């Protein structure tokens, strides 16, 4: 039934639908192995085009946190998380990393200020997800910004862009 399967996949049927409509019963794993062996597993699959995000020079500083590792404090013996606070300039893709122990407002502002000193300038916009130090309340449309961070960004003339919750593909858009 190879030609029948090729025809269905070619017009956009999902492989599960093809498997369910097969004239003869076949195990699901055997069906998927068959598709892979005959290179039919990508047939009819729509290619997803992701447009390139282009920033002007000085337009955007994209920020994010990442857990680097868990470290044992030699004084107390307790485990602490070491965070990597990463800033990437939108145009040049220049990356700056600051190692921090907490994600609180004062630590975040200090880390961002050190990044601004490193690049010797101020971007017009900071883009990040909705961390508690930026936004008190995450929202799909209008996040409620932390007053301290809002005053800090107003001092530098920076627009703060908090991304909608759980939508990482919108970064930089």
Characterization of the model:
The protein has a 5-stranded mixed β-sheet, with helices on one face. Strands 5-6 form a two-stranded antiparallel ribbon. Helix content is 29%, strand content 25%. The chain is elongated and about 70 Å long. The protein starts with a helix and ends in an 11-residue tail after the last strand. The protein has 173 residues and is α/β, with parallel strands linked by helices. The mean pLDDT is 85.
Number of strands: 7
Separate helix tally: 5
Order of neighbouring strands in the sheet with most strands: 3-2-1-4-7
Q: Would you identify the regions where 5 or more consecutive residues have pLDDT less than 50?
A: none
| N-end to C-end Cα span | 46 Å
**Roughly how many Å is the radius of gyration?**
24 Å
Assign an overall shape. elongated
Report the biggest beta sheet as strand number plus sense, adding barrel if it closes: 5 strands, mixed
The averaged pLDDT comes out at 85
Helix content: 25-40%
* Secondary-structure content class: alpha/beta
Sheet-strand content, in percent, reads: 15-25%
Summarize the helix and strand pattern as letters: HHHEEEHEEEHE
Question: Which features does this protein show?
Answer:
alpha/beta; 5 helices; 29% helix; five-stranded mixed sheet; single chain; 173 residues; 25% strand
In a few lines, what is going on in this structure?
With 173 residues, this protein is an alpha/beta fold. It is built from five helices and seven strands; from the N terminus they run αααβββαβββαβ. The radius of gyration is 24 Å and the shape is elongated.
